Amino acid sequence: MNKHSILIVEDDKELATLTRDFLNQFEFDCQIEGNGANAIELILSTQPDLVLLDIMLPDVDGLQICQQIKQQYKGKIIMLTARTDTIDQVLGLELGADDYVSKPVEPRLLLARARAVLRREAASSATVEEIQRFNDITINRHKREVIKSGQPIELSNPEYDLFEFMTQNSGVVLSRDQIFKCLRGVEYDGLNRQVDIHVSSLRAKLEDDPAAPCLIKTVRSKGYLFTG
């Protein structure tokens, strides 16, 4: 069985080693890097399938790493954070991270999140219809590219995954629980605002009038509807 490559960017050597040894028992082949600057070079040169990225590093922090690699790194990123302030989580997601896990890390949860993120990548590459058009918006699933009125729209990985999921279910009301299960592999806890943040960002980038959205509608007490 081919193993997924993972780079663990974590300066806590004991935690990094425990995480590596646990994940290596499954379908993963893990490396460790504790230096942020070195991690940037390693990510871009080796292009691992997944990066487990600690936000708080002693030199270049995880948010800076996300910002510097986002144009050239094609894999997935899960951010690890011990901070309780949601602003770091929001910034990480906007800079291209696909998910985040709070520290201290529960190994089984991290395993589930890693599998869910990589499963989304596999599903998107197996799409039957690669190019779809919705009025002035074109989505190229093979290139993971969205174009509006002839201009490419820059979406983070989570934003693209959410938009693709919505377009695949055009005309269907999607609950937050359905979205969470598809995009994160876990049930919605009733508190996390990540989906709402991504929807707001998508509206700002894709709607003619984000204050009065026509493309992505809110269905009260039910979820979101992509009208297509």
Q: Which oligomerization state do the chains in this entry correspond to?
A: single chain
Would you count the extended β strands for me?
12
Q: In percent terms, what proportion of residues is strand?
A: 15-25%
* Integer-rounded radius of gyration: 18 Å
Neighbour order of strands in the largest sheet: 2-1-3-4-5
Distance between the termini: 39 Å
Averaged pLDDT, please?
87
Specify the helix fraction band.
Answer: 40-55%
- Regions with little confidence, pLDDT below 50 for 5+ residues: none
Q: Helical element count? A: 8
- The topology string of helices and strands comes to EHEHEHEHEHEEEEHEHHEE
Outline type:
globular
Largest sheet: 5 strands, parallel
Structural class: alpha/beta
Question: What does this protein structure show overall?
Answer:
The chain is α/β, with parallel strands linked by helices and 228 residues long. It has eight helices and twelve strands. A five-stranded parallel beta sheet has the order 2-1-3-4-5, sandwiched between helices. β8 and β9 form a beta hairpin. α2 runs parallel beside α3.
Tags for this entry?
228 residues; alpha/beta; 4-stranded antiparallel sheet; 8 helices; 23% strand
Describe this structure in a few short sentences:
This protein is an alpha/beta fold. The protein has eight helices and twelve strands.
